Amino acid sequence: ENDILSKLPLKGKKVLITAGPTYEAIDPVRFIGNHSSGKMGFAIAKQAANLGAEVFLISGPSHQKIKHSFVKRIDVISADDMYKATHQYFKNMDIAILSAAVADYKPKNSANQKIKKATASLNIELLPTKDILASLGEIKEHQFLVGFALETNNEIENAKSKLKRKNLDAIVLNSLQDKGAGFATNTNKITIIDKNLVEKPFELKSKDKVAKDIMNEIVAKLEL
Ligand code: CTP
Ligand code: CA
Questions:
Q1: Which of 33, 37, 99, 166 has its CA 20 to 30 A from that of 64?
Q2: Is residue 57 part of a domain?
Q3: Which residue ranges does the record assign to the DNA/pantothenate metabolism flavoprotein C-terminal domain (predicted)?
């Protein structure tokens, strides 16, 4: 009679997921952002919950919706906000999957008032944001840490160097070269690379199915 529960391989596990873009304020009405829809991260959150995990979904601005009693959604705006929220939860997690498209730069100063237009050119000085994933790689203990890599060239090589540099257990390489893979689409084409640098390519498929592939790989690796 406990059949259904025993088929939930992530029952009792806590999973942190980051999703969506971040917005970096220029002034009260403008920001630097990107085209991430959050679809991939939300699909992963749903799948992790379906496998029985308690999910903490930290999302940048996204129109995605999720309704699942095992998913707690934490909304954030900027890379700094996402960094704080992620560190707040990470210590108690078993798995962390960082799929967010975090801005690499933020304006050095965010104006308090709307910047008025002028005829002169406008320069906005940018500072690098903190790398959330790398910061978790530095402090991780028991956690299984998964990152994403979005590449347009030297994909495998770049993904492997990210995996090593950020001390990950696996990295999901997202190909932008394939039509139908990427930001606003409903499909994705991935290759999962594990920490032994073994590559596992997958077909182009719906983001829901990609999420299942990712979670199945993680479950299989946890059981090793
Ligand atoms: N990431 C993060 N915090 C950042 C930047 C990236 O947590 N400030 C995470 C992303 O969520 C993703 C991984 O790092 O899991 C790789 O992101 P990506 O943009 O592909 O790589 P970067 O390290 O930012 O390098 P670049 O953009 O120069 O390729
Ligand atoms: Ca980046």
A1: 166
A2: yes
A3: 10-220
pLDDT at residue 3 is higher than 80 = no
Q: Whose CA is nearest to atom 4 of ligand 1?
A: 131
Q: Which residues pair with 144 in a beta bridge?
A: 95
Q: What backbone phi and psi angles, to 5 degrees, belong to 94?
A: -100, -30
Percentage of residues of the chain with pLDDT beyond 90: 88
* Atom 21, ligand 1: residue with shortest CA distance: 149
pTM for the model stands at 0.95
Q: Quick check: 19 pLDDT over 90?
A: yes
Q: How far is the CA of 7 from the centre of ligand 2 (A)?
A: 37
Question: Annotation-wise, does 14 bind a ligand?
Answer: no
Annotated binding residue 189: no
**Number of domains, the chain:** 1
167 in any annotated domain: yes
Beta bridge partners of 58: 18, 74
For residue 112, tell me if it sits in a domain.
no
Ligand 1 contacts (CB < 6 A) are 18, 79, 98, 100, 102, 104, 129, 131-133, 147-150, 162
Q: Could you tell me the residue range of the domain that residue 161 belongs to?
A: 3-103+126-222
Residues forming the active site: 34
